[in-house]
Amino acid sequence: MASAVVTALGEVFVTGALSDCDVVFCLEEGSPAETAGAPADPAHAASVPAVVGEPLPGHSLVLCLASERFRAQVGVERWADDAAETSSSTASRRPQLRVPLGSEAEAPFARAAIGYAYTGQVAAVGVSEVLEVRRQAGYLQISGCAAACDELLMGMLAVADGEGNGQQAAAAATATAAATAVAGTSSFPAAAAELVACWALLPDPVDDPSFAPILAAAEGALLRHFGDVLAVLNTPPLRQQLLQLPAAVVEALLGSEAFGTDTEDSVLLLLATWMKANHSQTDAATRARLCRLVRLVQLSRPYLTAVLLALAADYETGAGGSPCAWLPISVAEAGFITALATAPAGREKEATLRVGEQLYITQSPWYSASPRPQCLSAEGRTFEWAISQQELRAALRQLQPKDAVRMLGPFEGGDRPCARGFEWKVVCQVQHKATSAGCFLECAMPAAYDVPGSRLGSGSKVAAVVGLDACLAVRSWGHGAYFHDFVAAWPSFCAGRVLKVEAAGDDSPLVLPLAQPQPTYDGSGGCFRLLAGWAALMRNGRLAGTLTVLPPFTAVMRSEDAECEEST
Which architecture, in CATH terms, is 3-119? Predict the structure, then answer.
């Protein structure tokens, strides 16, 4: 089309010049806005719908070419005009094309969709506006407008990843305010954040297959931002953003085959974390959809026996809608899943599954044997911890004859790291007159499960055995670093919801040699030199070290087996 014609079409849309019809925006019968201001006579209300704003001067040729809906309306109007000419009425009438709206707020987006027929441009800024224009374009059957909206949305998401053109960058930049409301001050891409905020507006790909690429791009942006399950659990800004996500977005994350984790235990913990903060915002159907995405048959033995069964009991005995009764599973099915998950591979597991198929929906994700991507590399993920000189001195002041003191090693950021679905903490312990200190791990039930009325609450008594593949290190500035591997450790999980981890193999903690017995007297009246003997372990006023969480041994074996298969 000649550029002059294109320019002229855009101008007549703005000015209304040469128009031969009017596009009238009116509220649909029964819409909330119309009902609120409806007259007393229902018959009059039905015949005279409420008009929204001023009519839009239209051009029947343009509208008929751009929209099947308008083409049909123009045909009806012409038939009405022909009928009027044969009647006694001689009054001429300007054709009116009605656009029903659900609310007055839809009018600008309907106008923008019609404007696309003239200009070929989507007059919208930000994700939510583009989605609204797209919805109106679909209703009005404006040819090409939905595809143009999709292209603009894809460009916004591309800009969030550092791609896209200048026009798309300008459109994406307008999403910043909405992004801040969802993502706070972090680096959450603006377009992705606004898409999260208006997730309810997204078309269902089943009903609108053309939107599937947009949804895939949106999910990709979410996954790139949140990373993996451990990243969300162990990064306070990401964890806070998780709590603000609507249920539909959490469903997209949990349902993604690309959302990695260390074990499925951590996936259940992530859902419990979100559920504790958002339970009041969900209904039973929403909770069921979310919980169905956890692959329960892949939970570890500790989670099966200590967590899953307790949550099932909470569900069976909790009052309807109780915050502790959020996982909709019976004790019987939880017991069956435990039996299936722990059955030896082969005939016994196959027989167990056949029995369960008669009772339960074994095609659901609860029974999926497909593992999620392993998020931990062979090098693992490292967390820094440290005990300050002041904390160490205060603890040693409490040391009494024939006694011992314990000191927690706070992690960077203040939160305990999460792995294998549990929280982990470093403990240093020293006995009176000892020439060495012990350093070991303890494990605790995460606070996400501490819900009023739950069997996993702070006063509960639960027992399990937990292993952790990890490397605990304390820095020694004179002789390198002292390391101890906690690979396949078998701690005991006892009353009080605390797991104490003993080192694998020799059942001893990481031993830190001290230069002098603790505490140390200076020989002049009994005053203590409390930090004597710790010099080789102290630097910048801190006793510091690392905890490196390694991938589970079974995951490493699966990876090696896969590499062997590829090589053959």
Answer: 2-Layer Sandwich (3.30)
Quote the CA–CA distance of 456 and 451 in Å, as a whole number.
Answer: 8
Q: How far apart are CA 525 and CA 531, in angstroms?
A: 17
Using an 8 Å Cβ cutoff, are 476 and 482 in contact? yes
Is the Cβ–Cβ distance between 104 and 27 less than 8 Å? yes
- Residue indicated by tokens 């230069």: 515
Q: How far apart are CA 357 and CA 443, in angstroms?
A: 36
Q: Specify the 3-state DSSP secondary structure of 380.
A: coil
Instruction: Supply 540's token pair.
Output: 């910048």
One-letter amino acid at 120 equals G
- DSSP-assigned letters across all residues of 33-83: HHHHT--S-HHHHHHSPPB-SS-EEE-HHHHHHHBHHHHHHHHHHHHHHHH
Give residue-wise pLDDT tens across range 222-251.
898 899 999 999 999 999 999 999 999 999
Over residues 17-33, the mean pLDDT reads 84
Q: What is the pLDDT of residues 323-341, one digit of tens each?
A: 999 999 999 999 999 999 9
**Contact of 458 with 450, CB cutoff 8 Å:** yes
Q: pLDDT at residue 87 above 60? A: no
CB 399 within 8 A of CB 529: no
Domain ranges across the chain? 3-119, 268-375, 381-555
What is the average pLDDT across 22-30? 88
Closest CA to 99 of 40, 43, 54: 54
Terminal C-alpha separation, the chain: 59
Under 8 Å between Cβ of 263 and 420: yes
d(CA 289, CA 326): 11
pLDDT given at position 550: 92
CA separation for the pair 155, 534 (Å, rounded): 58
In CATH, which of 2.60.40, 3.30.300, 2.60.210, 3.40.1350 is domain 381-555?
A: 2.60.210
Looking at residue 48, the DSSP 8-state letter turns out to be: S
**What distance lies between CA 291 and its chain's CA centroid?**
14
Angstrom distance (rounded) from CA 500 to CA 276: 26
Which residue in this structure is represented by tokens 């079974």? 554
Cβ atoms < 10 Å from Cβ of 364: 12
- Going by the DSSP 8-state scheme, the letter that residue 88 receives in this structure is S
- Helix 284-291 with 264-278: angle, nearest 10 deg: 160
Residues 6+ apart with CB under 8 A from 44: none
535 and 389 Cβ atoms separated by less than 8 Å: no
- Its sign, for the CA torsion 203, 206, 212, 217, is positive
Q: Would you say 413 and 236 are in contact if contact means Cβ atoms under 8 Å apart?
A: yes
Quick check: 21 and 96 in contact, CB under 8 A? yes
User: In DSSP terms, which residues pair with 429 in a beta bridge?
Assistant: 406, 438
Half-sphere exposure of residue 359: CA atoms within 13 angstroms, side-chain side: 12
